[in-house]
Amino acid sequence: MEDTIVALSSGALPAGVAVVRVSGPAARRVVERLAGAVPEPRRASLRRIRDEAGALLDRGLVLFFPGPDSATGEDLAEFHLHGGRATVARFVEAATSLPGLRLAEAGEFTRRAFVNGRIDLTEAEGLSDLLAAETERQRRAALLQAEGGSRRLFEEWGTRLLHARALIEASFDFSDEGDVGEGVDAGVRAEVAALAAEIDAHLRGAARGEILRDGFRVAIAGAPNAGKSSLLNALARREVAIVTPVPGTTRDVLEVTLDLAGLPVRLFDTAGLRETADPVEAIGIARAREAVERADLVLWLDAADGAETEAAAAALLHVKQGATGAPRPGLRVRSKADLAGAPPEGAHDLAISVRTGAGLDALLAVLAARADAAAGAADALPLQARHRAALVETRRALADFARAPDMLPEVAAEILRDAADRLGRLTGRTDVEDLLGVIFSRFCIGK
């Protein structure tokens, strides 16, 4: 934090404009040395940018943001340069030659923003997800988190836990005060129970958060030559998989991601399921089973030309049941519909033909609807595995509190402190001094 850091912040070069950021105690000096006088805070100024020897590097915009009211909480300068590789490299070389400056490490600007209290951990994670967002729903969910949606929820829970603990501690530290009533324990237990129910409801959204972040997984399964690879190519609108009349061509799991209804839908083309003595094909079939087990939805392709054998159908059934015996959510799809008449009524959910395009729009509409239903509303979902783990630990502490209604107040307060600390790890802000503020301000003790 004593160093001043510099890095390109605007993405890959070459580009029309390159934004280079400088953050730290020497940021003002960098502007003075390379661009002359420091411009008025937060106002762009067109400057000639020169190195220490006076050689002209570029002509561009310079902005200065004094700390702590900057993105990082430190003095921060931005240089908007022409986006050529040589121009940016020469500027960075000139900047890092100044005393106290060095290249920034990965994520260091965001880390300084967190350390200086500009953002919390959930907002930092939301910013990372926003940069990686590929679909509209991902963008909205990440932006909600980057703007503090999760932080506000977690802090509200933390405040309620803090107040509950303060009531308990006040009950045994200041039992002679009139502000502290005799019904404290019942009120605290009701509040903790309500909080536990809210956390449970939030955790039930974890699967939806995973779909928003990582995509709705669709496995395309079936017998060899059922048309799986052809379907993947048709939906992707490019040649992703090799298609031949030879059974067993697909040996590995191939993946394509589509943007449907603003959600990432990940399609997995799998090896045809059948009994085989070929050790390489057997590995592909094993990976196909794993892909089906992990899928949110399985497309079961039955070829109209009779390619699905009884052995393959048995294999499909085995995978569909999975290790727990519960069927995977699936759609039974009649492929190669152009080679045969209409399928028997009720035998399949959909009939498609990659050759003619029949049924593909209907299939995409069904996939979009299934993905939309699985993802649900774009509220403050637990998008990160870290969030879910911390909430599970918090919930476990609250369960310990609920299981022992006759525990000593000191023990009860300690359990709630543990729960609050675990919740505080979500945002990275756990302050023990908050407890004193709650006790003395709410109960007017000591006046």
Question: What's the alpha carbon Rg, rounded to whole Å?
Answer: 30 Å
Calculate the terminal CA-CA distance, rounded to whole Å: 42 Å
The shape is flat
Oligomer: single chain
Work out the strand percent. 15-25%
Find the structural class using helix and strand composition.
alpha/beta
Count of helical regions: 15
Main β-sheet, spatial strand arrangement? 3-4-5-2-1-6
Characteristics:
single chain, 447 residues, alpha/beta, flat, disordered C terminus
Q: What do these coordinates show?
A:
The chain is α/β, with parallel strands linked by helices. 47% of the residues lie in helices and 17% in strands. The protein contains 15 helices and 12 strands. The protein has a 6-stranded mixed sheet with strand order 3-4-5-2-1-6.
Summary, kept brief:
With 447 residues, the protein is α/β, with parallel strands linked by helices.
Write the layout of secondary structure elements.
Elements lengths: L3 E5 L6 E9 L3 H9 L9 E6 L5 E10 L10 E8 L1 H12 L4 E3 L4 H8 L5 H12 L3 H11 L2 H25 L10 H20 L2 H9 L1 E7 L5 H9 L17 E7 L2 E7 L9 H16 L2 E7 L6 H12 L8 E6 L14 E2 L8 H16 L9 H19 L5 H19 L5 H11 L4
